[in-house]
Amino acid sequence: MKTIAVLTSGGDAPGMNAAVRAVVRSAIYNGCKVFGVNRGYRGLIDGDLFEMDLSSVGDIIHRGGTVLKSARCLEFKTEEGREKALNVLKVFGIDGLVVVGGDGSFQGAQKLSEMGFPAIGIPGTIDNDLAYTDYTIGFDTALNTVIDAISKIRDTSSSHERVSIIEVMGRHCGDIALYAGLAGGAEVIIIPEAGYNEDEICKKLIQSKNRGKKHSIIMLAEGVGGAQKLADKIKEKTGIESRATILGHIQRGGSPSAFDRIIASQMGAKAVELLLEGKSSRVVGIKNNEIIDVDIHEALAMERKLNTEIYKLVDILSI
């Protein structure tokens, strides 16, 4: 293993730059050349690669987003597109690839591994929706961004004595809403894994109002439904004034937290270590505070389960 390439793919996540930095510097420390691939699999097909040195990743550990950029690439999902990418890797003399991204990005790494090219995945996604790892890079930062937003929205919610519905990212995994709801003191959390009953929510809000509570926070994951629609229903059924706030892509930005920088650095170094050991078709993660690696097929096949203890705790504490 003499030459390694690294790319970031899918939705950007705070901490991706820290992972890229760790890959580059760990590889160079071990005597390898490193190439950066711009714009994910799109750049791989187009041959948009450049050699990186120590200076290439200087002063980026604190930056959000990804210096390598990211893009969706439908062409890579075809056999012809993957053949193009593989040819580019061979032309540049690359021996192994590190992919930073979510499950879609991992599927691309899996396909390359099946074609005989060594590839290692690093979990970079704010959704925290990969079952094999306790945390993905970017989740902690996104969580803190949401907590900050909750604090600000609570101020105006309290002033106007209204219900505030905060819609956060999470189409299939409600971890952002769940953890932010617990840390932010939300009265109701609505996530894809559990669903919700409008009448039960309205009943809870009315009971809260009757005991003197003048405002409430509802956390809603985007995969469940629209925040504005729910706000309208609450107003219609209870008469309580409700407002919807959709946080959107603000959750993806910002300087990564210390936690995300640390695990990204550890995972980046681990990915290089695996390639140098001749391993392929693996993904790196963190379990019980230990950096681990798992077979990529096994990782993608794992079913993400709801943390029922936290979900129940929110219900108990929001009485």
UniProtKB/TrEMBL annotation:
SUPFAM superfamilies: Phosphofructokinase. HAMAP family: Phosphofructokinase_I_B1 (MF_00339). The active site is at D127. Homotetramer. Substrate binds at T125, I126, D127, R162, M169, G170, R171, E222, R243, H249, I250, Q251, R252. GO terms for cellular component: 6-phosphofructokinase complex. This is ATP-dependent 6-phosphofructokinase. Pathway: Carbohydrate degradation; glycolysis; D-glyceraldehyde 3-phosphate and glycerone phosphate from D-glucose: step 3/4. ADP binds at R21, A22, V23, V24, R25, R154, G185, A186, E187, R211, K213, K214, H215. It is an enzyme of class 2 (transferase). InterPro entries: ATP_PFK, ATP_PFK_prok-type, PFKA_ATP_prok, Phosphofructokinase_CS, Phosphofructokinase_dom, PKF_sf. Belongs to the phosphofructokinase type A (PFKA) family. ATP-dependent PFK group I subfamily. Prokaryotic clade 'B1' sub-subfamily. Mg(2+) binds at D103. It comes from Tepidibacter thalassicus DSM 15285. It catalyses: beta-D-fructose 6-phosphate + ATP = beta-D-fructose 1,6-bisphosphate + ADP + H(+). Its cofactor is Mg(2+). It is found in: Cytoplasm. It holds the Pfam family PFK. ATP binds at G11, R72, C73, G102, D103, G104, S105. Its EC number is 2.7.1.11.
